[in-house]
Specification:
With 268 residues, the chain is of the alpha/beta class. It is 42% helix and 12% strand. The chain contains 10 helices and 6 strands. The chain has helices spanning 11-25, 42-53, 67-70, 82-89, 119-133, 147-155, 167-179, 198-211, 223-227, 250-267; strands at 30-33, 56-60, 104-107, 137-141, 158-164, 185-190. A 6-stranded parallel sheet has the order 3-2-4-1-5-6, sandwiched between helices. β5, α7 (167-179) and β6 form a beta-alpha-beta unit. α2 packs across α10 (250-267) and α7 packs parallel to α8 (198-211). The longest helix is centred in the C-terminal third of the chain and has 18 residues, at 250-267.
Length: 268
């Protein structure tokens, strides 16, 4: 796996180079982004991972706060869920092109909530799609599981689990990792404050050691990300050129690039 100098290289060079490399290096690999509760930053992590890997983003979350809607897709304009249509028809869906600013997308929409395929069918479909695309797939899932999420976990070469360093969220993580024993979990400390609380850092380390879990570099808390309305991946700002991103976004982008490389090393 190629090594990238995430902390040093100019972003306008680094991001395109990473995307070109990982699209091929992780061809056919599946990453599921999952958690047992909402509000952990799962969707943002999924979008950025998919963009940085030049992967196809399969959005298996049916709520309107999902990745597909954040990228501008509207289920109201579709007669049927593209994902369900492909699964039921036994064919590989054509992703919606994201161009240079978004990941390519396969969306589900609200139909998925009451029409989820069995986990084994979902897993088989994702495996076939990844092989056909010749690219990685990143699957964003509905918080708390369900058949679609279980199928994504079955097919996944890594199950990426974001967690903020807050007591309730870490308590939930402790229960989640017990439930997901045997799956290839990777924990991403997310929305981490500039000075992380020592007690929560110790708690995360305890959970990771107890369950032998890999933990990535932290992703910092960034108010600008929470308020952002642009229908693009944050990392696509790298295309603006050197010196044009600004301090509100660059630390987040570099952190996500570090997470991307660490997850890719595990999967590759």
């Amino acid at each position: 796996m190629q090594t990238f100098e995430v902390e040093e290289a100019p972003l306008f060079e680094l991001v395109p180079a990473m995307r070109a490399h990982f699209r091929t290096a992780l061809a056919g690999k599946i990453l599921a982004v999952e958690s047992d509760k909402g509000g952990l930053g799962k969707t943002t992590i999924a979008v950025e991972l998919a963009y940085n890997l030049d992967a196809v983003l399969v959005d298996a979350d049916w709520h309107d706060g999902n990745a597909a809607r954040s990228l501008g897709w509207r289920h109201e304009t579709r007669a049927q869920s593209p994902m369900l249509r492909a699964i039921e028809g036994g064919f590989v869906p054509r992703p919606i092109s994201g161009g240079t600013m978004r990941p390519d997308l396969v969306a589900a929409g609200p139909e998925l909530e009451h029409n989820q395929p069995p986990a084994s069918v979902m897993a088989d479909a994702l495996t076939a799609w990844a092989a056909s695309y010749g690219r990685p797939i990143v699957v964003d899932t509905h918080p708390g599981g369900g058949e679609a999420a279980n199928g994504a976990a079955e097919a996944a070469h890594a199950v990426v689990t974001p967690v903020p360093l807050r007591q309730k969220e870490l308590d939930a993580l402790a229960g989640w990792v017990r439930l997901m024993a045997g799956y290839p979990l990777i924990v991403v400390p997310n929305m981490v404050p500039r000075v992380p609380p020592a007690g929560q850092l110790d708690y995360l380390e305890k959970i990771a050691k107890e369950h032998d879990l890999p933990v990535t570099s932290p992703v910092p808390h960034a108010v600008a990300i929470e308020r952002r309305r642009a229908r693009t991946a944050v990392s696509s700002m790298s295309l603006w050129g050197e010196g044009k991103i600004g301090p509100r976004y660059e630390p987040f982008i570099r952190a996500m690039l570090a997470v991307t490389t660490e997850v890719a090393d595990r999967v590759g």
